[in-house]
Amino acid sequence: MAGNGNGNAMGRNGLPTIQTRPNGICHDDSSAPVKANTIDELHSLQKKKSAPTTPLNGIQGAANFSFFTEEERQQQQLQSISNSLASLTRETGPKVVKGDPAKRTGETPKVSHHHHFTVTPTISVSDSSLKFTHVLYNLSPAELYEQAIKYEEGSFITSSGALATLSGAKTGRSPKDKRVVRDESTEDDLWWGKGSPNIEMDEHTFLVNRERAVDYLNSLDKVFVNDQFLNWDPEHQIKVRIVSARAYHSLFMHNMCIRPTPEELENFGTPDFTIYNAGQFPCNRYTHYMTSSTSIDLNLGRREMVILGTQYAGEMKKGLFSVMHYLMPKRQILSLHSGCNMGKSGDVALFFGLSGTGKTTLSTDHNRYLIGDDEHCWSDNGVSNIEGGCYAKCIDLSREKEPDIWNAIKFGTVLENVVFDEHTREVEFEEKSVTENTRAAYPIEYIPNAKIPCVGPHPKNVILLACDAFGVLPPVSKLNMAQTMYHFISGYTALVAGTVEGVKEPQATFSACYGAAFIMLHPTKYAAMLATKMEKHGATGWLVNTGWSGGSYGLGKRMKLAYTRKIIDAIHSGSLLDATYKKTDVFGLDIPTEVEGVPSEILDPVNTWPDKKAYKETLLKLAGLFKKNFDVFTSHKIGKDSKLTEEILAAGPVF
């Protein structure tokens, strides 16, 4: 190459030096070598340190956290976690250290004597007390993906970027294995006995199971720890700590609980409630109160939950929901199993409904903001979502039917028990090989019209949804307060049971407060709180039937979704309040004579049945089922006298 005017300078071995031309046609695009002498050093340069995230609130000197070194921050964080994992017999926590043990092979974690917080055990030294437990604390989704794919069989990245996982032998909740400690603090508060979801256990048995879970977690090389929040209302927020053995569980709760900022974590302090999830490790079946190798135990006095013998992540979500059903009413806050959305003018609606009623579909409205899809609180400040994510059913999911859920299944989302193509990793949502209860857990901000923060003003409408497969409930009814309480306590829907010699029969399902499996107090207490709040803030109750019209299942037809949406729109706009109403027989419901966009003849179900005698028989049959279901609640008095109880009973069917 020609020189650049410096003459014919000679290089090595007498060869001329290669030089660039002034116009830069030839240039040297190399860069300085990396500042690393080994591959490990090079890898360390790849990752930039995050800001410190140490819980300090409640720790001596927390007010002066700015004076702590990073090492001191780390030690105080580990001290808090060690305290959570403390054995009740040894009265000390394990030696914990941050980080993945796989990255420290052959290396003993260095803990300075000054900051070492474990003490000599009061009983003989065990193997677990001699080892370090590595804590993977509030890992990011990317880090949890790596952990799951490396170490958890059945974890794969799907074509959309979601993490597919397996929950093991259990693919749903185990309500018969759920136990609640019955002691002096819960004896009078909680709902016990017939119809109650609360199966009792004593304090001693809980502590046996707690020790078993803690010993198992301490025996592992590593545990996952999440410090997060419940309830978007900052005034009534609950701090929760989840200690688990699987990355799948950690990512699930990262999505489902409210994710703290680094600043919030620095002041996290002692959690209000702790979950010890030992996953697949079973309980001892010879332990008193145990009826299987699975046990989900709540101790409201200790503010702790223990999970043994199940890896189904939904146990954590619903366990915390049960806790909120206990803690929030003590603050005069109503906890609700409902969907919630808000119009652009600030009008809020609550949607109650069991599986198959259309709660998710109807509360997801592109013209309204989504506050939440499942769990809420109603306080003096208004409504707030309890969770930070959504847990959606995936069976038969399609882009056309549920575009928002479909688009939310991307990087960061957990897909439970789905089946996918082994080569393309495309999920086959119609496939039920593992279970029909396939699920997706994703942060609520994955929904485009989610309202962040997930709070809103006091509800204007309370909508109770029923999929009445008997075909005798009206498409929409306006409820008075007593009727609202009656139908809220009943929590009715009807599903198709199956085929018997070619005849399909509907099966009535009742779930108190539309969430009987999770409530802790007697249903009438939640109903009374709902009525008080509705009266105070001027909310209207509605009963909407999304089920059959013109006959029962097999004879009539399912209510058109377009008509139901028109009814819901009329409720939101307030126009249905101004309609003309008439009263139905037996159930005594007020039904409108006209709703814009809905054929008037279908508003009264008797008009749609060609066989009027069959209609009356079916109506009386359903009324009898309501009455029989309500018998369990009739002996419970609300308030100082039985006046309100009598009003609620009078609001039921009369025949």
Would you kindly provide a written description of the structure presented here, covering whatever features stand out?
The protein is of the alpha/beta class and 655 residues long. It has a nine-stranded mixed β-sheet with strand order 1-2-7-8-9-11-10-5-6, with helices on both faces. The protein has a six-stranded mixed β-sheet with strand order 15-13-14-22-26-23. Helix 11 packs antiparallel against helix 12 (523-537). The model is unreliable at 1-5, 52-65, 105-125 and 497-503 (pLDDT under 50).
Q: Percent of residues in helical segments?
A: 25-40%
Biggest sheet statistics: 9 strands, mixed
* Fraction in beta strands: 15-25%
Please give the radius of gyration in angstroms: 30 Å
- Mean pLDDT equals 87
Q: Give the uncertain stretches in residue-range form.
A: 1-5, 52-65, 105-125, 497-503
Q: Multimeric state of these chains? A: single chain
Q: Could you give the count of β-strands?
A: 30
Give the structural class: alpha/beta
How are strands sequenced across the largest beta sheet? 1-2-7-8-9-11-10-5-6
How many angstroms separate the termini?
106 Å
Total helices: the number is 16
Cα shape:
globular
